[in-house]
């Protein structure tokens, strides 16, 4: 079935796919259907050999203004528990290929959390990141207290989470939350460019390197180092390792196949 709230562009550049969140009138508020469609699309793209990196964007005005408040407003704790919306987020987290968020305008609440679930963030000058849940009488629920704190540190995260203050793209850049700030008319292009750079690398090495970097967030240094070492050894079983090192000695560009 065709998704209703996202648009999938299979090849916006060689080996780069683009998913656009598409509920513009609601500033891409993340209702359950949209998140389900996003999970399904990422699963398909993760299994597609013609895709090596994925760009996730909204539009100029909003990446996403958060979870759909209207859909949540009347829910009880038991409804929320039974809906188990975070199993969708957990599935998205398992995407092996790198996801680059292209953020312009609002990235708030679940929108900020979704951008942080991605592996890199390219932002436009108009991007605003925030966790305003506190103003609704709740708090972040999809990583806002954890990923944000790890990215920007306790002082800034505490202020954002406890006051709901938005930060600008420039502040987000200084705080280490995002990778680039570019003019609005370039943010998508720049994200595709970054995705293309990654997509030119050996796909297996990219997936294993992503996995190892993420491991740094939930392991001790020693566990993380052991994990890294295993992935490093494992890559010597790949054809792309042979090709990459041969191409270096032959002074040519490697032709990676993902095997
Ligand atoms: C549902 C939303 C929405 C949201 C905006 N809209 N954000 N609908 N859920 N999160 C709708 C508005 O109701 C309105 O529709 C339309 O989008 C345009 O929004 P406006 O408010 O008219 O636009 P503007 O004045 O430009 O203000 C933009 C804004 C504001 C500052 C982003 O919309 C806002 O504060 N939104 C809520 C942000 C927020 O609190 N996010 C966190 C949600 S909780 P109508 O039809 O009414 O005109 C959360 C928890 C995550 O994310 C938990 C894990 C998933």
UniProtKB/TrEMBL annotation:
Q: Which SUPFAM superfamilies match?
A: ClpP/crotonase
Please indicate if the UniProt record lists Lyase as a keyword: yes
| One of the protein's GO biological processes | fatty acid beta-oxidation
Transmembrane regions listed in the UniProt entry: none
Named from the GO MF annotations, one term is: enoyl-CoA hydratase activity
Q: Which Pfam families match?
A: ECH_1
Q: Which UniProt keywords apply?
A: Fatty acid metabolism, Lipid metabolism, Lyase
Q: Which Gene3D superfamilies match?
A: 2-enoyl-CoA Hydratase, Chain A, domain 1, Lyase 2-enoyl-coa Hydratase, Chain A, domain 2
Lyase as a keyword? yes
Q: What is its EC number?
A: 4.2.1.17
Catalysis performed (reactions): a (3S)-3-hydroxyacyl-CoA = a (2E)-enoyl-CoA + H2O; a 4-saturated-(3S)-3-hydroxyacyl-CoA = a (3E)-enoyl-CoA + H2O
Family, per the entry? Belongs to the enoyl-CoA hydratase/isomerase family.
Its biological purpose is as follows: Could possibly oxidize fatty acids using specific components.
Q: What is this protein called?
A: enoyl-CoA hydratase
Q: Which organism is it from?
A: Chitinophaga solisilvae
């Amino acid at each position: 079935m065709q998704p209703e709230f996202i648009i999938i562009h299979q090849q916006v550049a060689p080996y780069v796919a683009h998913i656009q969140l598409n509920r513009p009138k609601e500033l891409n508020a993340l209702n359950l259907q949209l998140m389900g469609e996003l999970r399904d699309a990422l699963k398909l793209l993760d299994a597609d050999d013609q895709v090596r990196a994925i760009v996730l964007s909204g539009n100029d005005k909003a990446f996403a203004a958060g979870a759909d408040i209207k859909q949540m407003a009347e829910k009880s704790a038991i409804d929320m528990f039974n809906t188990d919306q975070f199993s969708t987020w957990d599935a998205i987290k398992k995407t092996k290929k790198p996801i680059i968020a292209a953020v312009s305008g609002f990235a708030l609440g679940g929108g900020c959390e979704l951008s942080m679930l991605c592996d890199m963030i390219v932002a436009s000058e108009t991007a605003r990141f925030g966790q305003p849940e506190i103003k609704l009488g709740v708090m972040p629920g999809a990583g806002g207290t954890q990923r944000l704190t790890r990215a920007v540190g306790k002082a800034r995260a505490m202020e954002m989470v406890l006051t709901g203050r938005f930060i600008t793209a420039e502040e987000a850049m200084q705080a280490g939350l995002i990778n680039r700030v570019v003019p609005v008319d370039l943010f998508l292009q720049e994200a595709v460019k970054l995705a293309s750079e990654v997509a030119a690398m050996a796909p297996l090495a990219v997936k294993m390197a992503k996995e190892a970097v993420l491991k740094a967030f939930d392991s001790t240094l020693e566990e993380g180092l052991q994990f890294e070492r295993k992935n490093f050894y494992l890559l010597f079983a790949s054809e792309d390792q042979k090709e990459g090192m041969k191409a270096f000695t032959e002074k040519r560009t490697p032709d990676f196949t993902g095997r």
